[in-house]
């Protein structure tokens, strides 16, 4: 009788999902333009960069770490790839690969500092955040890079899906979430990542190379940030040295809203996507309602708390 | 069943000499020696804080001793982490169990050695075979006759004894060379404890030597071939349980009696 | 050792406007044989960071400090302390409040910059009823308010005066959103505005990156042809966007010039002990792709020659 | 023979201290103006606001929480007290008390949400951060409040101490650090705070009211933020609605640089003061050296990592 | 020493009826009854997962049962948290010890009941008396004859048995009404285990009733006045250790024998 419940996602994802649906229902009632496939596609497109950054952030938080450098690495990656493609005249694909390589290298450095010298992730990524920011400014002379080859914005262009235009980058985003979900839940390395975050010492004692897992996670997160650079460049059509400054907090917010614990080892990647969508829906819906910007901030503050509180209270009920 | 072979003539599998481990002002190991022979069950006993866990942590790569040497089949080995010990085929049940509390029983049993689905793609991606892991987990836990109602429960929701069974089942299932168990029956009930003893015998009968740390003297005397007495961070004596009484053993362990006061045949 | 030391404190590190300002200052300092110290707030609005920078520069021996105040009023007490120690303080780009708090001000009038593009937009719409989206800076920022209100004033709508930090919102403004002067955020804001009101035909953007973001959003929605975008700054990239027809017009300002003038004044003060005083308007020029009747504007070729104050 | 070591501060404070001394030595060698009592007093004055915020932040982090709202609460407090004193004409002391009361009330709300509804501190304080920011903007109409009565800047004025002018606020800061250090190490409530952060469940089972401890901690942190408002107003001479935006990250950085664990239960309050000073010394020294501002960020990134790495490596050596 | 009083006539101190506690699909307590009499040592035994820890957690306020009633001296009490239990004078040693690992032994012993320095100011500020706490800690731990080299060590650096001694010493020192101990000797050596039994007797001789959960049958039979057998979340029987054999007890516990197959005098 109770059997069908076991096909539901775990409670920790259900909560954020309900919050998201509640927010959607609210805005659908309050505004005319909210409830359309096209508007939803728009929101997806708006959260695509933060959503991708949040994949890397989730991986790191699941290992009980935190990454303050993600936004700056994204900015660095987009400057590197756009400058190489325009000023150095490299083939766009090569330039893009080098850009992703640069963020991956930075991620690897984060990982090496965390594993080899055993520095707290907060400090390491605070340091690389500053370093990446400075390099970005120096290398770009703080100038936006424009006139990109078309291949670099290809991911930002829409394809028609069931009559709705959807940016290619959104499909990349969804594909990566699916892939990471599979890797985390159905492969051995994914389970090791959870084990390391849940009880590092136990993972070490059972013979998991915790250092190697962490190193991989940070490097891979760097790669995801590089892909976020690709999407950011494709979306805005420029290489923007000012990008990424608010995305650190936004990505962490998406992870935590999605039900992942900052203490590591507990959380579901799909929750992060929902968390990112919650923020995007708030912003979109409040603008559609014509709420002025200060009040938007006020309402967002209240809603964030309400969303998680509703989740919390519903779980208490269920117990 | 219990092969009463004089194991003292068997070849030495695992050996350690002069192990020292200091933590700040506390000396956990103070020049400890150790010797495990092929096919034997070696009990390690001693007061609380005598350095038993520290000793086996050094033998299983969990800590790196400050001084001393560890030899496997006569060859010096240098273990930098538990991974090295696993490569040598040494499996360990740690006293604090080393489980990932938020993960399920099946996942904990196979942690670090997940069963991978057959097929090239699955092997490449290392896709785990959840179904087979669940089945095998049920089987292993049934071996210990512990009544666990759902195998997909997170380990943190288990009772103390159930949690210990998970750790024991894991070590017993995967050992290829040496099994080390640090107080595996401490939290177990009568029935479950006996099942673990039975399991240890089965492992020994497969030819693998077992190191058993226990405070339970009846258990020790029931099952051990030799008894290593640890005292104040050193090996105080190695006793033959067939030739020495429980009371004398406890006296040696607590320092009430010197080992040389025992008859020669009690030592081995 | 008797090299004159001049300090330059900008609002942030990243805005191309301030980067150009630093470049101008560095060049002038090199030419005049002065040592240039630079510092910036962590982000726009970081008054405490600027106060700290002033103190540290005085400790480092700077006799002249050039500052683009993040907060026109809040910085005043710190400037007073500096001037009490004999340091000459010159405000660049935006005034302090009161303006007399500094020795001199080399700046453009942001309100006026707004008025110019407002006038241009009014003419460009040619009598069509306006449906306006404004992509502002962020809550509480004076420059954001001055440009926004100036734009509305120039457009002929009711608007707050130059001293107000509050954004006016007449009925013609159908959507107001914050862009933080950032291209990606400008794009998101414009997308949401379009969703709210698809008939928007005039976009005011706080600066050119935000305008570029707005253009991208309009283009994706297939509406880039019928919408007029106006912005402020007149940076080289912005003028190129005007030339390319993405932005209709922009009010050009000259950070390089301000900074160079500031450094020169600082060197002169160190050598002669004479301070500069008063307000020097470094000028605003309207750069438009297509000139409209009744509003003075320069073409983009001129704009590119002048951008950031190169000449 | 080894006995004298037990009078030293614990290792976790020694490391940051060494890093601070190393930084001071470096700047003393590299610049003429660094090594003076007066410059040191200047640095103290510059870190006084962040240093005070970091006290509250330390308390919260010791309980395994985190506070993103601290800077915004400070801004709110300073706007409330300055507006009441100028526009409403309240007596400055009354206005100041109400300002501190406002931040305390907000802290209490944080605490109630964390304890009663059991929301993650990250989410709660993210929400109140936004709410406090919006209220500040609305209440102040984003206008800086000037023309303060003299009593409100009294704390910013210097007193002569051994021939060096030292701002009164610096003395307040040092006094509060000493008081909190005493409370944390020598009183029962202080030890309970550590116990809650170290193992909440154990603390609960031994009969400590973990809820009450947490509630107190958040409310008290709010009070400290209010005192930080006082210092901020006194230092800048105005009520600034844009204040506090960078102070969140700065205060957390000071705590972590000072050796306190983000996982709670481990850390020393004096380390936080040292952590705040490290950041202040970097900024002051690099400006004195004439390093240009982008490169300052680069160097700060590198130095933060080096400081903690040196600490970490020295501890490894000691083992 | 061991007063062989027929405690079954003593007044009931702590009583519970029909306790139910469910966790999702797992039923930890399934209508359990319980009865503790004045001045007795009541042993609670049962297989792993039988619900012993769940039972005492309900009695000590650590969890709130879904159904059922708890009575103290015949009065229904509603405990919302362990603080309520402490007010009732109930002290508990939990199976997972409930210690703060980063804090010192002395601090853990006095956690939640720190010794406050005399003097008005100190009392107001609740300044702790570190010196006296250290002295008393040394005394308490010496009572248990456990060799701990430094009392200012963090608990996380202690051996398993030493850590258990900290928890036991704490409960024994502060109980005013009832002491509950969940497997207090599981990790202890022979000597230390005997000291804890001795301690339990001393507590009982002070007139406080003790609930002892243990898997160690010799210990149970040595010390208990009555034996509560827990099985599948229920109380299966209450046995009189003087009238029943260890083997029969284990049979009842594991379900191999029904309680009504025992002679009537074995039950109480
Ligand atoms: N990480 C550590 N830091 C400091 N001291 C430690 C650490 N680990 C162990 N010790 C000390 O080393 C000594 C030996 O500990 P060990 O755990 O080896 O004892 P044991 O024989 O296993 O005892 P038990 O029977 O209680 O498990 C103890 O006094 C303990 O306090
Ligand atoms: N928090 C929880 N969530 C889910 N199940 C739980 C939880 N706590 C206990 N259980 C389940 O309740 C049952 C009884 O557990 P309990 O700890 O009371 O057993 P016990 O008799 O103390 O066993 P042991 O002798 O092994 O300590 C077990 O099957 C356990 O899995
Ligand atoms: Mg041990
Ligand atoms: Mg139990």
From TrEMBL, chains A, D:
GO CC, alphabetical: plasma membrane
Entry keyword annotation includes Protease: no
InterPro entries according to UniProt: ABC_transp_permease
UniProt GO molecular function: transmembrane transporter activity
Positions of transmembrane segments: 47-80, 92-113, 119-139, 159-184, 213-234, 255-282, 294-313
Record's bilayer topology term: Multi-pass membrane protein
Taxonomic superkingdom: Bacteria
Keywords assigned: Cell membrane, Membrane, Transmembrane, Transmembrane helix
Pfam families associated with the record: BPD_transp_2
Keyword Transmembrane belongs to the record: yes
Localization per record: Cell membrane
Protein name: ABC transporter permease
From TrEMBL, chains B, E:
UniProtKB keywords: ATP-binding, Cell membrane, Membrane, Nucleotide-binding, Repeat, Sugar transport, Transport
Name of the featured protein: Sugar ABC transporter ATP-binding protein
Domain ABC transporter: 14-257
Source organism of this protein record: Aquabacterium lacunae
Lineage: Bacteria, Pseudomonadati, Pseudomonadota, Betaproteobacteria, Burkholderiales
Gene Ontology molecular function: ATP binding; ATP hydrolysis activity
Keyword Acetylation: no
InterPro entries: AAA+_ATPase, ABC_carbohydrate_import_ATPase, ABC_transporter-like_ATP-bd, ABC_transporter-like_CS, P-loop_NTPase
Keyword Nucleotide-binding on entry: yes
PANTHER family given in the database record: CARBOHYDRATE TRANSPORT ATP-BINDING PROTEIN MG119-RELATED, SUGAR ABC TRANSPORTER ATP-BINDING PROTEIN
